[in-house]
Amino acid sequence: MDPGHKDLLHRPHRIAVLALDGLLPFELGIPHRIFGRPRDGRGRPLYEVVTCSVRPPGRVHTDADFSIQVAHGPEALATADTVIVPASYELGPVYDRGELTPELAAALARIRPGTRLASICTGVYVLAAAGRLDGRPATTHWSDADRFQRMFPAVKVDADVLFIDDGDVLTSAGVAAGIDLCLHMVRRDHGTAVANDVARRTVVPPYRDGGQAQYIDRPVPDPQQSSTAEARAWALRRLHEPIQLRDMAGQEAMSVRTFTRRFREEVGVSPGQWLTLQRVDRARHLLESTALSVDQVARDAGFGTAQSMRQHLQTALGVTPTAYRRTFRAGTAAR
Predict the structure, then answer these.
(1) Burial 221-240 (b: 16+ CB within 10 A, else e)
(2) How deeply is 76 buried, as exposed, middle or buried, from its count of CB atoms within 10 A (0-12, 13-18, 19+)?
(3) Dihedral of CA 67/71/74/80: which sign?
(4) How far does CA 274 lie from the centroid of its chain?
(5) Burial 305-315, CB ≥16 within 10 A → b, else e
(6) DSSP H or E stretch at residue 116
(7) CA of 216: how far to CAs of 69, 161, 212, 231, in Å?
(8) d(CA 229, CA 224)
(9) Which of 73, 101, 148, 160 is deepest in the core (most CB within 10 A)?
(10) Residues 173, 159: Cα–Cα separation, whole Å
(11) Partners of 70 in beta bridges
(12) Nearest C-alpha neighbor of 107 from the set 52, 54, 56, 58
């Protein structure tokens, strides 16, 4: 097959971002920033991102002092592989009564069966009002979670996480959690290396687990107190070794009790949970990018045994190490 023919077969994953009146410009920009970066080995875009409205092409006003010109109408939803609904402060009956407007219902009806759906912050109201979340787990901004649960009792709301991946439907908390969600989708689609490259170019952390708390009472450490950053850096340099909590605390000259409290205040999870997340991420990278045996990956990632790694990956990702590697190798071959 000649290279030109291969180019003709290349079709980026098409993402339609639904711009609703009253949208938040920051949230609208997240999908374009994250999905606009990834490239395959030949430099071709892995995603195509388009913005659409529920009306014919034209102006959509935001919650700021400017409007945006949207080039696509609702017909773009019919061609999407993924539809993302960012936050809006003017959802009208969707927010007030949990009911879709006729034009929004007509627009959503264009979405093909099997299309992946995602929301950022209050965009989840649109998915719920459309009946796409009944009986499923979902999240939204912590300050709105109680109201959302009362309005949609059939949805299993979890207000304590950054995002939830329920297969073909994903939801996130507000603002920065939308970045985490989009990076997660890139990672799920194309692996850790691609997602990490996007994160570096965007100058954001490459990975915050969806189960991490979205609201921490004191997210910024008191400048008079010590941080746990050095202990985290120390641990990351030796993930392949056994790491005890007392060893991490010792790096900051703290008692185990003080270190554990300070760590949770700064990171949002316990030191043990954080270590497991880092090891899972290391294992994912090694499974994707090397031919190391599963036993060797388990040792290098700090799990010790293949059985231990298998249990942790099954819990975190829902797949075995072998199945995970097979998925991403198949994806690489397809690209």
Answers:
(1) eeeeeeebeebbeebeeebe
(2) buried
(3) negative
(4) 17
(5) ebeebbebbee
(6) strand 116-120
(7) 37, 11, 10, 20
(8) 15
(9) 148
(10) 8
(11) 58
(12) 54
On whether the CB atoms of residues 313 and 283 are closer than 8 A, the answer is yes
What is the DSSP code (8-state) at residue 110?
Answer: T
Distance of alpha carbon 191 from alpha carbon 43, whole angstroms: 16
Which residues make Cβ contacts (< 8 Å) with residue 47, sequence separation at least 6?
12, 13, 14, 15, 35, 36, 38
Report the predicted TM-score, pTM, of the whole model to 2 decimal places: 0.73
Tell me the residue type at 23. L
Task: Give CA torsion, residues 310, 171, 121, 281, to 10 deg.
Answer: 20
Residues 141, 42: Cα–Cα separation, whole Å: 39
The residue type of 170 is L
* pLDDT tier, 210 (very low <50, low <70, confident <90, very high otherwise): low
At 168-193, the pLDDT tens digits run 999 999 888 999 999 999 988 988 88
Written as six digits, the tokens of 207 are 């990975």
| Tokens (6 digits) for 270 | 């316990």
The three-state secondary structure class of 72 is strand
DSSP string of 237-267? TTTTS---HHHHHHHTT--HHHHHHHHHHHH
The string of pLDDT tens digits covering residues 261-317 is 989 888 878 999 999 989 998 998 899 888 999 999 999 999 999 999 999 988 887
Distance CA 309, CA 52 (A): 43
- 8 A C-beta contact, residue 252 and residue 231: yes
User: Which residues, at least 6 apart from 21, have a Cβ–Cβ distance to it below 8 Å?
Assistant: 60, 61, 88, 90
Beta-bridge partners for 50: 16
Q: Distance between CA 5 and CA 93 in Å, rounded?
A: 49
CB 170 within 8 A of CB 182: no
Tell me the chain's radius of gyration from C-alpha atoms: 21
